[in-house]
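idk why but the lab printer keeps eating my pages so im just putting this in chat instead. protein + iron/sulfur cluster:
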Amino acid sequence: MDKPRKLFIKTYGCQMNVYDSERMAETLGAQGYVETASPDDADMILLNTCHIREKAAEKVYSELGRLKELKTAKPDLKIGVAGCVAQAEGAEIMRRQPMVDLVVGPQSYHRLPELEAKARGGQKALDTDFPEEDKFDRLAARPKARRGPTAFLTVQEGCDKFCAFCVVPYTRGAEVSRPAPRVLTEARDLVDRGVREITLLGQNVNAYHGAGVDGDWSLARLIHALAGIDGLERIRFTTSHPNDMTDDLIEAHGTCAKLMPYLHLPVQAGSDRILKRMNRAHTAESYIRLVERIRAARPDILMSGDFIVGFPEETEADFQATLDLVEEVTYGYAYSFKYSTRPGTPAAERAQVPEDEKADRLQRLQALLTRQQRAAQDAMVGRVVGVLFEREGREAGQMTGKSDYLHAVHVRDAGVAPGTLAPVRITGSGRNSLAGELAV
Ligand code: SF4
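predcted complex ->
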C-alpha cells in the first residue's frame, strides 16, 4: 500500500476560497493525499489565492519565491497555484516561476486528479477554463467523517454586476447557481456529519436562482427548504448585492426562525456620484430605504457593510456622504478599505486619490464604524441570546461560540461540548467579543 502523500493548502481571501480549499483537499484526498499543517513535510503545496487586493499577484510570486528553497531541497515536491490569481495570471505564473507544476482556476478544480497526475508525470498542468460541465457534479463525494458545528456551502458563483473596481466577474465568471436539490443533499450530508449552522456562499448570493423540481428557486425559497432539515439550527448567507434583496428574501428575515438576524449588505460608498462611477446601479437613498424595509421585517437585525474610501475622483464632499450614510444606517459590523487598483478593471485607468487622503479618510470612517460596532456589542449586555459553541476558549474551562448576531461569545465553566446551542445571558462586552453565562 503506497505511503499516503502529504498535501499542504494555504488559503487566502474570502470564505468561498475556504470552501474551495476544503473541496480541493477532499478531491486530492480521494487520490491518496492527507492534509498536513506544515509545508516542510508536504509532497504537494497548493496556494489557493485571492485577487481582491492591489499587488495580489506580486504577493503570490514572493510566496512562490520563498518556496523555491523547499523545492530545491525536495525535487519531487509539487507546487500548485489555485484560486483567482491563478485564473487571472494563468500561464504567466509558470513563465515567471518555472518551478510551479500546476495552475488551476476556481472553475476547474474538479479536474485536479488529472492535473495532479500530469504534474506527477513531470509535465506542466494548466487549466483556467470556464468549463461547461458542472464542477460540483464531478467533485469527489464528501467524506463521511464528523466535523465541527459550522460549515460554508457554496450555492452560487460568479457575478454579472461588473462594479468598476472588482475583478470577480473576470476571475470567477458569470453568475451560476447550483441546482436546489444538490444544495439540499449537500446540506443534509453536512448535518449528518455534525453541522448545525450553514453559511450559504456566493459572490452575489442573493441573485441565486437554482433549478428546482418546479422551476427556478430564489434564495428565500432555498432557505425555507433548508430550514426544514432536522438538526440544521441556523442559516446565514453572504455576500449580497442591494439590488438583489428580493421581497421574499426580506420577508424570510421576518418569518424564518432559523435565518439568523445578521445581514452583510455591502454599499461601498454614500455618494450617488461615486456609486454611479462604481457602477453599483443603486443610490444611497434606495439603499437606506431598503435597510428600513429589512429592519421592518426583522427589527433586531444586525447590519454589516463593506466600504471603499478614496475611490477615483472621490471628493471630500463625496466622502462626507459616506459618513452620513453610516450615521443613518448604523452598522454592527463593517469592513472598510482604501481603494486599490486591480489590473483590468475600469476604475484602474482613472485619476487616483492621493494615498495620504485615502489613509486619512479610512481612519475617520473606521473611527465611526468602531464606535457603532462597540455600541452594538454593549447593547447586548443583559440580554439572553442563542450561542452555538464551537470550541474551547483560551482560558481553562472556557467555551467559545457565536451568537445569533455573529458576535463571538466566551462562557466560563459552561460544561458544554462543541456543537451545543444554548441560551446565554450576556454579562460583559469586550473589544471584539462578549462574555456570558449559561441562561438555563
Ligand atoms: S457585486 Fe460584488 S462580486 Fe460582483 S462585481 Fe460588484 S463587488 Fe464584485
